[in-house]
Amino acid sequence: MSEAPRYRIIQSRNEFHAALREALDEVGQVGSRELFLCDEDFADWPLGDADVIERLSRWAMSHRRLTLLAQSFDGVVRHYPRFVAWRRQWSHIVDARALEEAEPGEVPTLLLAPGVVSLRLFDRVRVRGSLSHDPADDIRDRELVTAIWQRGAEAFPATTLGL
Fold first, then answer.
1. For residues 38 and 120, what is the distance between their CA atoms, to the nearest angstrom?
2. Collapsed DSSP state (helix, strand, coil) of residue 135
């Protein structure tokens, strides 16, 4: 098996989706303990696709941790029922936080598995970004995620109680 390139440019939505699947495969194979998914609303992510849910399920184990960061999870709940069901099943490893007071563009579009891979869109409109295995990108993205996480409030509960 050949080693993955250290850095790759993303220039389209299809390339972003393919890179996301590739990164999820990699974290599943490597056994990354932590995974961070960040976006304003996850509208352009393929979270409703069965193959993405399957990749997340292969990665998920009780000693793993998935952190979701968004400005709002309303669109996720409305548009991704498969992901909502997956989140409910794996609620014991998922921490979801919302940054409702964040300015537009402040929440990055980012997948980070510390020490493994970083996938980031720098331009959401034109879908331009990078898939990186560079430790410097890993450190920068980890610092960004930590700063955002600290400002967030718990959100996107696994279940909602009705009266």
1. 9
2. helix
